Amino acid sequence: MTFNISFQERAKLSTIILSKQPAVTLKEAKEQAQWLKTNSSTKKKETKSLIQFAEDNNLWVDINIDLYVSQGAEQKVYLKDGLTIL
Which range of residues forms the domain containing residue 35? Predict the structure, then answer.
């Protein structure tokens, strides 16, 4: 089943749906985010799986933390030999 509605109609429906939801304070939102972060099993499972994969495939490398260059969202970048980055 396909519905063709305009952007304006979708925006109006979204506004109606949002207006029916209870308000959340910034404190409550922070508490919810912290709870999700600490109780999320997905991240823990992913970490365990990645560690096991690295061990099984001998992918661990020695890193000189003094050669730190930068970082992204979840990774840190290091120089290996002056030219190669890890």
Answer: 7-78
Rounded to 10 degrees, what is the CA torsion of 10, 12, 14, 18? 180
How many domains does the structure of the chain reveal?
1
What is the tens place of the pLDDT at every residue in 36-51? Answer: 888 777 878 888 999 9
Q: DSSP characters for 12-74?
A: HHHHHHHHTSPP--HHHHHHHHHHHHHH-HHHHHHHHHHHHHHHHTT------GGGEEEE-SS
Whether residue 69 lies inside any domain: the answer is: yes
Residue 50 in any domain: the answer is: yes
